[in-house]
Design brief:
The complex is a heterodimer of chains A (about 240) and B (about 290). Chain A has about 240 residues and is of the alpha/beta class. Chain A has one domain: 3-Layer(aba) Sandwich (Rossmann fold), CATH 3.40.50.300. Helix content of chain A is about 40%, strand content about 25%. Chain A contains 10 helices and 10 strands. In chain A, helix 3 packs parallel to helix 6. The N and C termini of chain A lie far apart (about 35 Å). The mean pLDDT of chain A is about 90. Chain B is mainly α and about 290 residues long. Chain B has 11 helices and no strands. Chain B has one domain. The model of chain B has no long low-confidence stretch (mean pLDDT about 90). Classes of the chains: A alpha/beta (about 240), B mainly alpha (about 290). At the A-B interface, helix 2 and helix 3 of A face helix 6 and helix 7 of B.
């Protein structure tokens, strides 16, 4: 089986500083993978490199075709949705406009309208607030909106950058449940970067651990969760 | 009282032009965070193109439409050739670019059409509007065309996909790219629209100030004043600011002794400075908070 996303020898740079040192990993179609690591390990950089938002070298292949040289917006148009750190909400626009923006590259009007309704089913709180300015939403609601906005693309691959950041534990559980559902029901392949390792490992079927720009461990989520070193370093028990 | 009403209405009419210029300035400011000092010269050049077309026998509204298309394409071309390469350059480099553009357009217009003053026709005539002595048909036309333009722009930005994409690209470029919007082309499109809006302002004001290469200098300064007053981040503010500045200019010129026509321009500048000191975000603008 060939992987949907294949990353080889990925090196990324911020100016003179090298942040990734030859990362290698692969995502199978339909999988839910998590990328774990401490602050500054290079998790966000990895996601940004996939979408060409940071200078990088190496090979990234999506469905066997190289992404190198493509602009961010062209990579997104292939069906790769990226929920960035800080959520990237269009705060001065309404909730509904945010959802419409998620589908801005699609031309099937009827499909977009029905997808917006589908998002309101997934996230009832967004329906209640659909004419409200997105900036007035709470952090959790904005994170729901960011996920919904990404889904409006009808993505094949969804990249999530610390979706649990700043959210109350109960809300995080809800959000992760929804992610699992999206992965199962809508067949969206998901790569989620997390500091909340315990929760991420419960959700994921595969995990990579990243340390100072290198993959130091990989395996099924269960294996990683039971690994002594990982438990000590990232799970804290 | 009649003098007062008369001055207010005349102020609204010129204010319509300031509103257009302010709107053009704000559109580019929203897209690239710079003030386009050459906005007036671009409008002047467009007006000359319209005049030239009419000299060649094209009827007014035909020339008007061709000029809009020309200006739209010209605005896009300027962005692609000059300002896209400067996108990541420091502020001063961009300012130099704008000043160069100003000087180039001004001299080229002088070279082609020379610096003598030319009459520019009005399609509305200059008889009193509806028999009233308060306002001429041309002034009424200026107000009417501007209002129509504003309504069209409102619908474009509020209800079309392209309008939504342009707003997204201006407010958060990175998020816009992440939903697949080609932000670079949205900026170019903003330039094209700004150039066309400026052209409308130029063609409407030309019968009043007469056509010559420096005709837009004063108008642009009032446009800047309007944009600053309304708030550089708010298109609605720019429009309201335009009308306010137009009325303010006329009332001050009429009622404050010693101001007259000669000192009207410094008033615009004084207004800019006052707003920047007292309320830098303008009437409708959002204060810009940078996290450090």
């Amino acid at each position: 089986m060939t992987a949907m996303l294949n990353v080889r020898d990925l090196r990324a740079y911020y100016g003179q500083v090298q942040a990734l040192h030859g990362l290698e990993f692969a995502l199978n179609e339909g999988s839910l993978t998590t990328l774990l690591g401490a602050n500054g390990a290079g998790k966000t950089t990895t996601l940004r490199a996939i979408c060409n938002m940071v200078r990088s070298t190496g090979a990234i292949e999506f469905d066997g075709a190289p992404l190198g040289g493509r602009s961010t917006e062209n990579i997104v148009r292939l069906g790769i949705a990226h929920v960035p750190q800080g959520r990237g909400t269009f705060t001065t626009m309404t909730v509904e406009e945010n959802l419409q923006l998620g589908a801005i590259t699609r031309s099937d009007k009827a499909g977009v309208i029905s997808d917006i309704e589908r998002m309101y089913d997934h996230f009832p709180v967004l329906k209640a607030r659909h004419t409200q300015q997105a900036g007035t939403l709470s952090g959790g609601e904005q994170q729901m909106l960011a996920v919904a906005r990404a889904l409006m693309l009808r993505p094949r691959l969804m990249l999530l950058d610390e979706p649990s950041f700043g959210l109350a534990p109960l809300i995080v559980r809800d959000l992760f449940k929804i992610l699992g559902k999206i992965n199962r029901d809508d067949k969206v392949t998901i790569l989620v970067v997390e500091q909340n390792a315990q929760l991420a490992l419960e959700l994921a079927d595969k995990a990579y651990v990243i340390e100072t720009g290198r993959i130091v461990m990989s395996g099924s989520a269960a294996e990683i969760a039971n690994n002594e070193d990982v438990r000590k370093s990232y799970l804290g028990y | 009282m009649e003098l007062f009403t008369n001055q207010v209405l005349a102020g609204i009419a010129t204010g319509a032009i300031y509103a257009c210029m302010a709107l053009a300035v704000v559109m580019i400011y929203q897209a690239i965070d710079h003030l386009n000092f050459a906005q007036g010269e671009m409008a002047m050049f467009s007006t000359f193109v319209c005049w030239q077309l009419m000299q060649w026998g094209v009827p007014y509204w035909g020339a008007f439409l061709i000029t809009l298309v020309f200006s739209f394409a010209g605005g896009i071309a300027i962005e692609r050739l000059l300002f896209k390469p400067l996108a990541k350059a420091p502020i001063l480099t961009n300012v130099a670019g704008f000043i160069a553009l100003y000087a180039i357009i001004n001299s080229v217009a002088g070279l082609i059409w020379d610096f003598t003053i030319k009459q520019f026709p009005t399609p509305f005539g200059s008889s009193p509007f509806l028999g009233s002595q308060l306002i001429s048909t041309h002034q009424a036309g200026m107000i009417g065309v501007t209002l129509m333009l504003l309504i069209l722009l409102f619908f474009f930005f509020r209800f079309t996909r392209m309008g939504l994409a342009m707003r997204a690209a201006a407010s958060l470029p990175e998020s816009a790219r992440l939903v697949g919007i080609n932000t670079s082309w949205m900026i170019a499109l903003g330039w094209g629209m700004a150039a066309a809006i400026g052209a409308i302002a130029g063609m409407l004001i030309a019968p009043v100030v007469f056509l010559e290469p420096n005709m837009m200098l004063g108008v642009l300064i009032y446009g800047f004043a309007a944009a600053v007053l309304g708030g550089l981040t708010s298109p609605l503010g720019a429009v309201v600011g335009g009308f306010l500045v137009g009325v303010f200019e006329n009332l001050v010129g009429t009622y404050i002794p010693g101001v007259g026509n000669e000192l009207k321009l410094p008033i615009a500048l004084a207004l800019i400075v006052t707003v920047l000191v007292v309320k830098p975000a303008g009437l409708f603008g959002r204060p810009i908070v940078k996290r450090v």
